[in-house]
Amino acid sequence: MLRRVVAALDSLPVTGVVGLGPAVDPADVPGTDRVRVHRAVPHEAVLARASVVVTHGGHGSVLKPLAHGIPVMCIPSFRHQKDNAVRLTERGAGLRLRPSASVPQIAAAVERLLVEPTFATAAQDLGRPHPGGDRAVTAGAVAGGGGASTGSRAGRLSRSGVSARVVRRSRPGLGSACETPASHQVT
Q1: CA nearest 25: which of 54, 2, 59?
Q2: Considering Cα of 44, then 147, then 134, then 85, what sign does the dihedral take?
Q3: What is the largest distance, in Å, between two alpha-carbon atoms of the chain?
Q4: Is residue 179 a contact partner of residue 69, using CB atoms and an 8 Å limit?
């Protein structure tokens, strides 16, 4: 599946970052000029600049992007991942694809998340602090904020194979034109 995600991102006018986790050898998932593949990525630094996250749908890899108001595309395989994907799509903050999704299907879903503003709005709503409390959706996942380099729950999730494939587009008001899909960037 990771190779299909890399190919899908490479087919779009974006650049991407793929975090594999410790269970996958980077040699097994070659990157491209626009899609960089790493064993580990600093989630908080990448998410601070991301516009879309493609993930298996684990708790941490869904909660972290929502804390940043970023729409999520889930490709769940088992257990809680499927439930997370259902909740995410019912709230309008992302999309779900089957693990057998083709490169064109993955690319179309990423493109849709990038260009349809309702997904970002719903993700921002889910990540917004609730009156009288913490960010209800994000409390455990963002503690420590350092991803794989911390001893936090989020760091343990990162080291255990939670991977996030992140794409970014330039946003209005940040010095880059982004009115068309051709202006998408990923970091």
Answers
A1: 2
A2: positive
A3: 47
A4: no
* Top mean-pLDDT range of 19-28, 106-115, 168-177: 106-115
Strand duo 164-167 + 72-74: pairing: unpaired
Question: Which two tokens mark 160?
Answer: 């255990």
pTM confidence score: 0.71
pLDDT in tens, 90-148: 999 999 999 999 999 999 999 999 999 999 999 999 888 766 655 433 322 322 233 33
Structure tokens at 47: 């998410």
Residue 146 has a CB neighbour count (10 Å cut-off) of 17
Cα separation values, 31 from 47, 52, 60, 73, Å? 19, 18, 24, 20
114-to-24, 25, 67, 149 alpha-carbon distances in Å? 27, 29, 17, 29
d(CA 163, CA 143): 17
> Average pLDDT of 16-44?
91
